[in-house]
Amino acid sequence: MSTVYIVGGGLAGLSAAVSLAERGARVVLYEAAGQAGGRCRSYFDATLDCVIDNGNHLVLSGNRAVRDYLRIIGAHDALAGPQRAEFAFIDLETGDRWTLSPNEGPLPWWIFSGGRRVPGTKAQDYTRLAALLTANSAQRIEDVIPCKGALWDRLMRPFLLAALNTTPEGASATLAGAVVRETLAKGGRAYRPRIAHPTLAAAFVDPALAFLAAKDGKVHFSQRLRRIVLDANHAVALEFPDSTVPLSADDTVVLATPPWVTRELVPKISAPDKFHAIVNGHFKIAAPAGAPLMLGVIGGTAEWIFAFPDRMSVTVSAADAIVDQDREALAALLWRDVAKAHNLSATLPPWQIVKEKRATFSATPEQVAMRPKTATAWRNLLLAGDWVDTGLPATIEGALRSGQKAAQLAWLRRNV
Length: 416
Description:
Layout: E1 4-7, H1 11-23, E2 27-30, E3 42-45, E4 50-53, E5 58-60, H2 64-73, E6 79-80, E7 87-91, E8 97-100, H3 123-127, H4 141-144, H5 150-164, H6 173-182, E9 193-196, H7 200-214, E10 218-220, E11 227-230, E12 235-240, E13 243-246, E14 252-255, H8 259-265, E15 275-283, E16 294-298, E17 304-307, E18 312-316, H9 327-342, E19 351-361, H10 365-368, E20 381-383, H11 396-415
Parallel strand pairs: 1-2, 1-14, 2-10, 7-16, 14-20
Antiparallel strand pairs: 3-4, 5-9, 6-9, 7-8, 11-12, 12-13, 15-18, 15-19, 16-17, 17-18
Helix pairs in contact: 1-7, 1-11, 2-7, 2-11
C-alpha cells in the first residue's frame, strides 16, 4: 500500500495530512519540533501562569479552507467572533474612535452612510479600491491606488499591513487584490473576524492530531529531516538522524517546511528569501468590560489589540524596526498604547513578548515571483506552505489551502 509522507507539522502539513486521511490514504507525518503547529502554536507561559498563543492569528468567516479544515477535524465551533462584521478603531493621536460597519451582502451600500464608513472618507474613495482587482503581477499597491488620505491611513494601510506583513505601499498589488476580492468585495458576511477559542492549539492543532490518530495516521515528533535522496525523476529516500525511510515509486512526499529549510533540502526549488518580523505582546490583565474583541490602533506602535477574559494581547506586523529592541522596553512601549486605548492604568502588568523574526515572506512583487508551484520536477515530491504559490498572502487560510492542494495532487497521483 502506498504511503504519503508529510514533512512538517505546521498548519500546511496538518492540512495535507487530515485531507488525505479523510480520503483513506495512509499518512505518516514527521515534525522537527516537539509539538505540532509551527508558527501557530500555543504553550504554557510560566510568567503569565496561563496558556497563550505565540501570536494573534485572525481568520475571517469567509475563509473556505479554514471552514473545511475545521469541519474535517471536528472543530467547527472552535472560533469566536461577532455575529456581524464590525471593526472598532481608535486614533491615539486625535482620540477619535469609530466602528466600521459594513452590510452583509456584496452590494456595498454601507459606504454611502457616514456613520458606517471611516470618518473623513467619501463613497468614491472606496470605489477606487476596485483597481486592485485587475492589477498585474509587477505592480505595487502604490502604483494602483492612492496611498494617502483618510481611507488609506485609517483602514486600508492597517488592513493590508496585517494581511501582507509587508509595508503596504511597496507590496504586491495582486496579493492585495486577492485579499480585497475575498473580503471587502464579498460583503460583511465574508469578513466577520474570528479568533481561535480558547487557543490556537485547541482550535487547529489538537483536534487535527486526534483526527489523524483515529484514522491510523502516524505522527513522529523531534524528527528533523536531514536529506531527501533524489534521482532524476523521484524522491527515493528520506534521511533522518537515526533512520532512513526508503520510498517506493508509488509513495509521495509532501514537503511542508519553511522556505529556507526547503531550499536546504532541495536547492533547485525557487523560494522567497526575504522575510519580515511580527512582534506580539501579551499582558496578564482582564479586558475591561465592553472592550471589543479586536481594536485597530492608528498612530501608535501597537496595531491591533485583542481582548481576552484573562489577558490582553497586541500584534505589530512588519515589525523589523522594533524586533531587536529590549523585551522589557517593548513591553512598556506596547502597554502604553493599550493603556491609552482602553483607559487603563499606566502601571505595566505581568507581560510576555513573543518575536517571530521570519514570520512571513516579504510580499513584494519580486518575492511573490519566487513562490513555487505545489508540484515539482520530481514526480512524487510536492510542496506545501503559506509561502508556496497559493495566490494569497502568508496567512492561515493560505497555509491550509496549500496543504489541501498538495493533498489533492497526492491523492490523484495515488489513484492514477
